[in-house]
Specification:
single chain, 257 residues, alpha+beta, 7-stranded mixed β-sheet, 6-stranded mixed β-sheet, 4 helices, 16 strands, 18% helix, globular
Length: 257
């Protein structure tokens, strides 16, 4: 059977997270939304249990009385624990879909019944769900914060800088490199702030704070279009509270309260 993590064949009903692109199917009752309960078959992927109830995910599964709602819109509408499972559902479904064939030899892969892996029966390559590590950094100078506008983002807001970790780098090396490459300054006093799984790119964001050390802001013009130092009472439009980027910015602003 394709379930994992000890789910028995009798546990065929639970919370069902039907994934549609970047959306999850929910039942709406006015302003309230809930994850539907339904019977499942072997095409559903086990996610774990929440409040003693099995949770499952499947791509494009039809569920009666449920309609897709963007995951971003579910932030605050679902309890935090259910929202966390919804994020997991997007990642697990993407892994299962993207590795149905072996990346080494092209043979169709098979799900394991005992662990979260898809294995090629021909060359035995096993692929587990993975997250790509990325750093995100708040840089301060005196009583100002560095905020920039990313040219690749469809959203017209300013945010702190971020970038993916490259092979062979430590997290701290990535922090220094990304800030130098994107806006041309040197930083110091790099400190860990927190982390957040980010399902929209299958990554985990590792947040840091740092202080300006030297140099003038020079946006790279390829990824960063604008960058400037902002005082607490002059913060421009920033990301929504869903993101750890916003947590970094709010922490800076609230220190003056």
């Amino acid at each position: 059977m394709s379930f994992v993590s000890g789910v028995s064949s009798s546990e065929r009903r639970g919370r069902c997270y039907a994934v549609h692109g970047q959306s999850i199917a929910v039942v709406r009752d006015g302003d309230a939304v809930t994850i539907p309960l339904a019977d499942v078959d072997d095409d559903w992927l086990y996610l774990g249990a929440l409040d003693g109830e099995p949770c499952f995910a499947r791509e494009n599964a039809p569920l009666a009385s449920a309609e897709p709602l963007a995951l971003r819109a579910l932030f605050g509408a679902l309890p935090d624990a259910e929202f966390a499972v919804a994020q997991r559902a997007l990642g697990i479904v993407a892994w299962d879909r993207d590795h149905r064939c072996c990346g080494r030899c092209g043979t169709p892969t098979e799900r394991s019944a005992v662990e979260r892996v898809r294995t090629c029966p021909a060359c035995k390559l096993g692929v587990y769900p993975r997250m790509s590590p990325a750093v995100i950094v708040r840089v301060e100078r005196d009583d100002t914060i560095l905020l920039a506008r990313n040219l690749r983002s469809p959203f017209r807001f300013h945010s702190v800088l971020a970038g993916f970790v490259e092979l062979g780098e430590t997290l701290e090396e990535t922090v220094h490199r990304e800030i130098r490459e994107e806006v041309g300054i040197a930083i110091s006093d790099v400190r860990y702030f927190g982390s957040q799984p980010w399902p929209f790119t299958g990554s985990i964001m590792i947040a840091f704070t740092a202080r300006w050390a030297s140099g003038d802001l020079v946006p790279d013009g390829t990824e960063i279009g604008e960058a400037a130092w902002f005082a607490r009472d002059a913060i421009p439009t920033v990301p929504p509270r869903l993101s750890i980027a916003r947590a970094l910015i709010d922490d800076f602003v609230e220190r003056a309260i």
